[in-house]
Design goal:
The complex is a heterodimer of chains A (575) and B (81). By secondary structure, chain A is of the alpha/beta class. Chain A is built from 24 helices and 17 strands. In chain A, helix 7 packs parallel to helix 8 and helix 13 packs parallel to helix 15. In chain B, 62% of the residues lie in helices and 0% in strands. Chain B contains 4 helices and no strands. In chain B, helix 1 crosses helix 2 and helix 1 crosses helix 4. The two termini of chain B are 12 Å apart. The chains are: A alpha/beta (575), B mainly alpha (81). At the A-B interface, helix 11 of A face helix 2 and helix 3 of B.
Chain lengths: 575, 81
């Protein structure tokens, strides 16, 4: 999901919207609306709405709304969208007398209320009114704040009184152009050349954002809104990997990058207090994943905030299916946030109805980026909305973890994964040493090696090394797995180290790697591979690693006779 | 950049904005020669050209152009300025 530039957005006008719910809009403005209308229609098409639009002629707000026999009412709209331009309003304002200036906001509000009341008398339409971009005072500048008859004072009062008006009338909704303008700035929202030439107040670059706000408001008042936020943990809710770094090592709270994660958690917590359901979906051992929620002093989110907590090594699409079955809400009411593009794309491809925003690489930018989408737009709010968390937690407990797993073969095939396999080289010594120092989960023997150690193994005749880098069509994951083999005898290779990054779990990388290992063993005229898992608190994940790969247990070691080996199927192409 | 190179970029912009693959614009092309090139399309073309070449047109420049060639020439002139 993203907000497309106007030129790209426009192409969605060609989409077939015949299956989508029809929504009738009437749009009236006092500046050119010819681009606003296609922007709204195209955004609708992208979000599964078929808009039938009546567009009032230029500057006919009064005529169409106050005349009870107008074409606008004949269209019998579900929504009336009114855009009064700030630029226009400013021209009106400066032409007023001093006395009238002081009353400007009040008299404009009266006019808007008259529009609303007339529309409600003549139709059942809801009214979407654009609030005002607070263009700067060009007469009194900063001093304007001290004067009741200044533009700054009146335009801010107007926006403030509009909120009061919207609180008074249940079918009046404001499209918050003022906030959008705070995000994008006047140089994006308004282009003076277009305004003078075509009386176009809202600039082309700004319209997609405006249209998005309109469509989100329409959607939520039709009952289509988000109810649940599903969060990943590592690199999303805190910095680092809980399984590798441990509770003391993850970054959360206070200063620096930890603060960015705290902010994200605070945001989630506020949503939860508003009535949004929070769920966790993480690749982790459950106990490990829950520990920060229970013990870390800087965590904002606690276990009692989470309705459904899923931490396991299964495919995330299946886990989200499970969350859906517990909560019994539509997939289209779920938002999934994960820093890992693989997981995002997996969920997008298996569950296209779930909203999965991109995420910038830098966690400092997470929240600002997410704020661009009105992810949790709503058209109603009641105190009783708050906190259904308890009720869902009970439901989650009751429901056992019986799940249907769909095959992800098709998905893996489509990833177009390619791997590069090579012996360690002086270019990656540092990364390899770091991986042996830092990996805890997918690490069979947890042997830690310095750069010097690695270099001496590279030089030794008794050691063989493999480093594996992985790419797919979404990106380059770099060096993600490494193997160190020790020659025990002429015929036997011992797997001293087998490490893989958890970022690439569930892609059958280990099967691919074993194929490579066997090929290497053959090349060396060896006929047996011996592996070992040294259990640690953190490597439960690889408990069955060798067993699953077809090794046979022999006095705490795992053996694979090369003659018995059948090549493993996987979807990774060797470079 | 030469006028010819600018013209070929213009052509891509026209195809994109008008969403019409077989448009061929030449120096002499005017709004009358291209179906759908109305005042609103014109706004989009100007904005797209400004973005592509990172130039700005003044309002009087926009009003003065009679054909595609004049716009190309103006872009070349701005790029060399």
């Amino acid at each position: 999901m993203d907000i497309k530039p106007f030129n790209k957005l426009k192409k969605s006008l060609k989409k077939d919207v015949s299956g989508f719910p029809v929504v009738k809009l009437a749009i009236a403005g006092d500046s050119a609306t010819q681009f606003l209308v296609p922007a709204i229609k195209a955004t609708g098409a992208d979000q599964s709405l078929a808009f039938e639009v009546f567009e009032a002629e230029y500057d006919q707000i009064d005529l169409q709304i106050l005349n009870r026999e107008s074409e606008l009412y004949q269209h019998s709209p579900d929504f009336v969208v009114i855009q009064k331009s700030s630029q226009k309003l400013y021209s009106d304002f400066i032409a007023e007398s001093l006395v009238a200036k002081e009353e400007f906001a009040s008299s404009t509000i009266d006019q808007i209320e008259l529009y609303y009341n007339t529309i409600k008398q003549e139709s059942s339409a809801k009214v979407l009114f654009f609030n005002f971009i607070e263009i700067p005072d060009r007469v009194f500048y900063n001093y304007a704040n001290k004067l009741k008859h200044s533009w700054s004072y009146q335009i801010r009062k107007l926006n403030f009184e509009l909120m009061n008006l919207a609180q008074k009338h249940k079918d009046l909704f404001l499209i918050d152009l003022s906030s959008l303008n705070n995000v994008h700035g006047l140089r994006v929202s308004h282009n003076p050349v277009l305004y003078h030439q075509n009386t176009m107040d809202l600039n082309l670059d700004f319209l997609p954002h405006v249209a998005n706000s309109v469509v989100d408001t329409v959607n939520s008042s039709l009952g289509k809104f988000k109810k649940c936020l599903i969060l990943d943990l590592d690199h999303t809710c805190w910095g680092g990997i809980i399984g590798d770094d441990g509770i003391e090592g993850i970054k959360i709270g206070h200063t620096g990058i930890g603060n960015a994660f705290s902010q994200l958690q605070s945001w989630a917590k506020s949503l939860k207090e508003r009535g949004i359901i929070l769920a966790i979906c993480s690749k982790n051992n459950e106990d490990t994943a829950k520990e920060p929620f229970e013990k870390h002093p800087n965590m904002v989110l606690r276990l009692e905030d989470i309705s459904v907590f899923i931490a396991n090594w299964e495919n995330k699409a299946d886990n989200i299916r499970y969350i859906q079955s517990v909560l019994n809400i539509g997939f289209d009411s779920m938002v999934f946030i994960d820093d890992n593009p693989f997981e995002r794309n997996l969920v997008r491809s298996e569950l296209p109805e779930v909203t999965v925003p991109e995420l910038p690489e830098d966690p400092a930018l997470y929240l600002q980026y997410l704020a661009d989408f009105n992810l949790f737009e709503t058209a109603s709010y009641a105190i009783s909305d708050t906190d259904r968390t308890k009720q869902y937690q009970t439901e989650a407990k009751r429901k056992s973890l019986q799940r249907s797993y769909s095959s992800i073969d098709e998905y893996l095939k489509n990833l177009e994964m390619t791997a590069t396999v090579e012996a360690f080289s002086k270019f990656n010594v540092a990364r390899i040493s770091q991986l042996t120092q830092r990996s805890n989960q997918y690490n069979l023997r947890t042997q830690r090696y310095s750069e010097e150690d690695i270099e001496s193994m590279m030089a030794s005749k008794d050691h063989l090394t493999l480093s594996i880098s992985l790419k797919d069509k979404y990106g380059d994951y770099g060096l993600i797995s490494l193997i160190i083999l020790k020659r025990k005898s002429e015929k036997e290779l011992f797997i001293d180290t087998w490490i893989m990054s958890c970022r690439v779990l569930k892609r059958d990388v280990e099967k691919f790697v074993l194929n490579e290992l066997v090929a290497l063993a053959k090349e060396q005229s060896c006929d047996i591979l011996v592996g070992e898992r040294l259990p640690t608190k953190k490597n439960v994940l690889v408990e069955n690693h060798y067993k699953d790969l077809g090794f046979k247990e022999q006095s705490n070691l795992w053996c694979l006779h090369i003659v018995d080996f059948k090549k493993n199927k996987n979807y990774i192409q060797k470079n | 950049m030469t006028v010819e190179e600018v013209l070929s970029s213009f052509n891509e912009i026209f195809i994109d904005v008008l969403d019409e693959d077989d448009i061929v614009v030449e120096m002499e092309t005017t709004a009358d020669d291209v179906e759908d090139w109305d005042s609103l399309t014109h706004v989009q073309l100007i904005v797209a050209i400004e973005k592509k070449f990172k130039v700005k047109f003044t309002i009087s420049e926009i009003e003065s152009y009679q054909n595609v060639g004049q716009m190309c020439a103006a872009v070349v002139e701005k790029l060399n300025a």
